[in-house]
Task: inverse folding
């Protein structure tokens, strides 16, 4: 029994839900059968049926569904409304106009509903997940005195997009207040007729299962890594996960549905490049060396567009980077950036639709799958776990060394360099954290994260200041008020940068102290070894970061 | 939450019909409404097809031994609930007399309902008793159905005095003529003249019509089965006047 509150009632009314399996034709358990089953106990009358067509909306990565929310655009005849259901039965319904989905959350005109959705979806657009056609029939159940004791709503629905699918008939029986015991009789009648008791979210989940096939980013599982399997296979599996992400996000980036598609594509690209750099040497046949320039090209093609996205989000106050409150004259700058963005979007589309990109995706996938299938020649193969641990230790030491340098001699280049090394370690941890020893994979994570945040603050503030200054210089005839606001923004960014720089020594010290206290200190003090022969020289900086390790086959022979 | 009592010392003047129809119209207008049938005859309860029984009877209500909310029944109509009548209520006077502050007991009993309802309509038994005193204490306004006779004004005055003496607070009182028989000249004259001379009398009068008597056969408020009837129209007008003036 689920306490569900129906709008306008004075207190929650008790209801029970049932599902009755539909046949292949979708009509094997019609309303008449439900009514007949209930008629054994009650006097049943039909109080009307209403057909409707609903489009289920969510972000491409199902943020609403994951938050337990269902957003539907429902059409009854010529009227159209947006329903937001949080599963408690206390749904929000607002009339709406015609909207061409996908659309940003700003397309929702009702302020309260927009705010409720925006807090979950953030900057992601709402995309249609599926279309459902349904007929809801209301039955009224009366006792021997002809007193209404319960209402039954029979929902006969089927999914028509993205694929046609039959759904079970959904029955919700709600007791009139003070007649809750009659629900038990109704339940017995339906169960005897072959219906099954259901939980409140079960019908929604049944629809969602079909709907996920229509999402641009259907939920997917990452490939499992085995700590004892050859490291080459695990690296290939991790890279294939990133390739899937690239594959999944490229269409959304080309269609420009929202900025997160490109962001996710770039994160997967950076992760790919980091893995190629830090662990690509384990892959056979020089795969890593062959594809590294191509992934660098992808990174380069997507950077200008992403920089503009970030700056526009900053100007719109959609990020925590800087407070833009009170700056009301930034419109001309935003317009100018939006125009620049249109140009960059054309270039991005060209790149992502190019033969070069599709060949990269196809060939890279084929090469990795070959490694995964064990069809390529592996040579001496270290196991995943020791390999992953060794590379994480190495990456961490590299960070410690750079942190020490930065502490001794501060420069913006050094900040940027250390931040990039930090990101690489994070990508490595993300790929192999599950198979590595916990102490190795998580050691000093808290201190490193605090340092990364501080470096990020410095770097982002500086970058935005440079970009704003550049754009302001490039954009001709900006009004004086706009230039003043750009100046004010730069001032605020500068304050933030200065605060982060002041905090930096306090963030570096714990990282260095922890490294000094660790057993690997002796190893760190030892002279650096040359770059592992199999590593990818073109992306790996030629420095002395690699230190002696317990010899692994790959480090010796590649 | 507002509390409206429909009360008269006399019986058979249309209290229950008025309480039922006004409660229904308030609910139909979107107000969360509770009709409390305080009459042991439970006529309002009968009209809503609810069994005239409250578990624990009047004792439960007066002593608040169980939450009053659990005795409430939903009606067939949205936003309208009913606290049923029970023959056991005939002993309510004695039960109230046993309590501290016996004239304020019902007011206290109703307090938990304030969050759930916008309006509580009390259908009162015809008497001058401790129950009546409780009702008048609990009510914000009292609606008094009056048969248009020469004694009706006297009845209203008596009641006003009684309310002034017993309620101990300012309660708005609005009388209205009920069961008006247009065939009787006295009825016509009183209905035509008196409301203009007194500001505690409603302009709307409810005629004596068979469609109102049919409520007992249909077991439903007039506007549900005869929405265009004169009776339904008059009840709408009375509701508008009562909710505005009382």
Result:
């Amino acid at each position: 029994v689920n306490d569900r509150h129906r709008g306008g009632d004075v207190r929650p009314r008790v209801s029970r839900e049932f599902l009755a399996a539909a046949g292949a034709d979708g009509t094997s358990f019609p309303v008449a059968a439900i009514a007949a089953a209930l008629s054994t106990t009650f006097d049943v009358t039909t109080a009307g049926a209403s057909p409707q067509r609903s489009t289920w909306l969510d972000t491409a990565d199902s943020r609403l569904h994951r938050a337990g929310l269902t957003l539907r655009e429902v059409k009854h005849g010529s009227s159209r409304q947006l329903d937001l259901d949080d599963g408690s039965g206390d749904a929000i319904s607002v009339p709406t106009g015609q909207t061409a989905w996908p659309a940003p959350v700003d397309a929702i005109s009702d302020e309260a509903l927009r705010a409720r959705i925006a807090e979950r979806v953030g900057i992601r657009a709402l995309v249609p997940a599926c279309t459902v056609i349904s007929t809801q029939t209301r039955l009224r159940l009366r006792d021997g005195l002809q007193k209404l004791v319960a209402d039954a709503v029979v929902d006969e629905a089927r999914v028509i997009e993205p694929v046609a699918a039959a759904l079970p008939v959904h029955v919700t029986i709600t007791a009139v207040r003070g007649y809750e015991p009659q629900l038990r009789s109704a339940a017995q009648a339906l169960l005897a007729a072959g219906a099954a008791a259901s939980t409140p979210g079960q019908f929604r989940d049944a629809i969602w299962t079909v709907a996920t096939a229509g999402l641009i980013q259907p939920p997917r599982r990452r490939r499992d890594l085995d700590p004892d399997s050859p490291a080459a296979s695990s690296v290939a599996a991790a890279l294939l996960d990133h390739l899937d992400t690239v594959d999944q996000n490229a269409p959304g980036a080309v269609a420009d549905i929202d900025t997160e598609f490109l962001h996710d594509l770039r994160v997967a690209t950076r992760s790919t490049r980091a893995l190629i750099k830090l662990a690509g040497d384990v892959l056979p046949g020089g795969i890593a060396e062959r594809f590294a320039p191509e992934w660098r090209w992808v990174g380069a093609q997507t950077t200008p567009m992403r920089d503009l996205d970030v700056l526009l989000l900053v100007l719109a106050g959609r990020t925590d980077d800087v407070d833009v409150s009170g700056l009301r004259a930034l419109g001309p700058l935003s317009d100018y950036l939006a125009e620049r963005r249109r140009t960059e979007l054309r270039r991005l589309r060209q790149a992502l639709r190019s033969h070069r990109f599709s060949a990269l995706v196809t060939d890279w996938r084929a090469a990795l799958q070959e490694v995964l299938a064990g069809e390529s020649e592996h040579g001496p193969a270290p196991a995943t776990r020791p390999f992953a641990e060794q590379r994480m230790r190495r990456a961490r030491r590299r960070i410690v060394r750079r942190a020490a340098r930065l502490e001794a001699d501060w420069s913006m280049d050094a900040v940027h360099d250390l931040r990039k090394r930090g990101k690489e370690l994070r990508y490595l941890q993300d790929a192999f954290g599950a198979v590595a020893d916990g102490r190795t994979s998580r050691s000093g994570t808290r201190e490193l994260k605090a340092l990364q945040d501080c470096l990020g603050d410095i770097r982002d503030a500086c970058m935005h200041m440079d970009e704003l200054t550049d754009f302001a210089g490039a954009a001709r005839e900006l009004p004086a008020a706009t230039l003043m606001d750009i100046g004010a923004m730069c001032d605020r960014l500068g304050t933030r940068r200065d605060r982060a720089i002041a905090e930096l020594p306090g963030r570096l010290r714990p990282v260095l102290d922890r490294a000094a206290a660790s057993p690997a200190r002796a190893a760190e003090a030892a002279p650096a070894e040359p770059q592992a022969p199999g590593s990818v020289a073109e992306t790996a900086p030629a420095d002395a970061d690699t230190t002696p390790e317990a010899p692994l086959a790959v480090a010796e022979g590649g | 939450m507002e509390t409206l009592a429909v009360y008269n010392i006399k019986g058979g003047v249309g209290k229950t019909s008025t309480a039922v129809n006004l409660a229904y119209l308030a609910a139909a207008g979107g107000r969360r409404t509770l009709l409390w049938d305080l009459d042991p005859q439970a006529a309002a309860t009968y009209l809503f097809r609810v069994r005239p029984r409250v578990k624990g009877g009047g004792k439960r209500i007066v002593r608040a031994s169980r939450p009053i909310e659990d005795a409430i029944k939903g009606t067939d109509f949205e936003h309208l609930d009913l606290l049923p009548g029970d023959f056991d209520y005939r002993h309510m006077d004695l039960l109230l007399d046993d309590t501290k502050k016996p004239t304020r007991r019902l007011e206290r009993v109703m307090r938990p309902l304030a969050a759930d309802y916008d309006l509580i309509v009390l259908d009162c038994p015809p008497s001058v008793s401790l129950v009546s005193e409780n009702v008048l204490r609990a009510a914000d306004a009292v609606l008094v159905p009056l048969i248009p006779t020469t004694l009706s004004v006297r009845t209203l005055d008596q009641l006003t005095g009684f309310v002034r003496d017993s309620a101990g607070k300012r309660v708005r009182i609005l009388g209205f003529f009920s069961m008006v028989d247009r065939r009787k000249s006295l009825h016509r004259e009183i209905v035509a003249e008196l409301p203009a001379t007194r500001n505690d009398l409603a302009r709307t009068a409810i005629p004596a019509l068979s469609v109102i008597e049919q409520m007992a056969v249909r077991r439903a408020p007039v506007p549900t089965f005869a929405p265009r009837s004169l009776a339904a129209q008059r009840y709408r007008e009375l509701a508008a006047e009562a909710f505005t003036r009382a």
Q: What stands out?
A: The first strand of chain B starts at residue 2 and ends at 6. The mean pLDDT of chain B is 89.
